[in-house]
């Protein structure tokens, strides 16, 4: 008995024949403008009275998905969700740029003399 994985991705809708976004991805993950997806840690709201202060602090943090997971999540959403979004008072605004990595750098690197 082998279970078959099913991600719920609709490649062709019945009405217009277009791809559809998997809504569970949008509910669980958030995409930063440089292409990585972030998520919260599981169990962050469960049985907090049994967890230490350090563990609760770690649970409040977000974690990155790896490159394979990011590629999969990009395939599960339409191009609308892959484009940068601009919100007023966005708490993730400092994390949308990644200047310290050469591939995702937008500004030219100025050497320190």
TrEMBL record:
**Which Pfam families does the entry link to?**
Ribosomal_L35p
Its localization reads: Mitochondrion
Q: Which keywords belong to this entry?
A: Mitochondrion, Ribonucleoprotein, Ribosomal protein, Transit peptide
Major location (coarse): mitochondrion
Signal sequence annotation: none
GO cellular component labels: mitochondrion; ribonucleoprotein complex; ribosome
What protein family is recorded? Belongs to the bacterial ribosomal protein bL35 family.
> Which protein are we looking at?
50S ribosomal protein L35
- Species whose genome carries this gene: Ranatra chinensis
């Amino acid at each position: 008995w082998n279970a078959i994985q099913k991600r719920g991705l609709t490649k062709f809708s019945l009405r217009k024949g277009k791809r559809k976004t998997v809504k569970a991805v949008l509910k669980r993950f958030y995409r930063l403008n440089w292409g990585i997806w972030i998520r919260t840690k599981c169990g962050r709201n469960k049985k907090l009275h049994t967890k230490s202060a350090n563990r609760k602090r770690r649970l409040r943090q977000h974690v990155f998905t790896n490159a394979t997971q990011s590629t999969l999540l990009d395939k599960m959403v339409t191009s609308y969700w892959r484009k940068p979004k601009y919100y007023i008072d966005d708490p993730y605004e400092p994390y949308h740029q990644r200047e310290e990595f050469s591939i995702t750098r937008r500004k030219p690197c100025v050497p320190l003399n």
